[in-house]
Amino acid sequence: MANQQVWAFNKVELLVTKINNRQMKQILILFFIILNFPSFSQTQFITKGRIVYERSVNQHKPLEEEGSDNDWWKEMMKSFPKIVKDQYELKFNETKSVYKLDKENTDNKYMWGSKPNESDNAVHDFNNQSVSIQREIFENTYLIKDSLRKLEWRITQEIREIAGFECKKAVTKICDSVVVVAFYTDQIPVSSGPESMGGLPGMILGLAIPRMYTTWFATKLELVEPTLPQLNPIQKGKKVNWLQLNTELKKGMKDWGKQGHRLTWGFTL
Predict the structure, then answer these.
(1) Average of pLDDT values for 192-220?
(2) Phi-psi region for residue 164, left (φ > 0), alpha (ψ -120 to 50) or beta?
(3) How crowded is residue 53: how many other Cβ atoms within 10 Å of its Cβ?
(4) What percent of the chain has pLDDT over 90?
(5) Any idea which fold 49-267 has?
(6) Model confidence at 61, in pLDDT bands (50, 70, 90)?
(7) Which end of the chain is less enclosed by CB atoms within 10 A, N or C?
(8) Which pTM was predicted?
């Protein structure tokens, strides 16, 4: 690369000495810098588009945790696939993002608590620093309205390529002790991601919550500008904030053990 730079500047110097016009010299210098240093001209930031994510859930793990000697659980694991995958989408611009189910895999057989809901969606409003989430929880529809999550992310030096983008690894916790691992790219300087996740200096393209046995990874980005109706879906449900929802869930599932904890984590994502 260094030899290419020297060669390029030598070309510029040779041509400039043959030109007396000062403005033409400046134009030629700029032209050869752009021509010979592609990174100078190719650096670009994406602020609008559509990202497709694949959500993958290991349905067997919770049962395996409870003990492999239970005959009923063994039969359950024979009847349901270990991994179920579904397609989600996130449409975004500089001011808003909307995350929702894009395509359910109709071949999937879901264990209780794994099936996605078509009406669920999460809207991030960056101008107002707010989130609005419609979520089906058992027989009830909730509309969660609150400020954007303020998560304490720890950014590491680990790099991973996802959907053609170089992503940095970051780690945080939700619900006091549940570890969340994210991979974000600053080439998309929109602080959003799957579910209600965000708060990083770029778009989250990869997400993993080990204790939920669930991952989200982007498979592609489409450079299409979302429409106003797409960024402003009609939402309904019982209005609550995060604290009120957590209080209701803990009260309703206080005797559910580990299963109750996992469901609570999922409902408050």
Answers:
(1) 96
(2) left
(3) 26
(4) 58
(5) outer membrane lipoprotein receptor (LolB), chain A (2.50.20)
(6) confident
(7) N
(8) 0.81
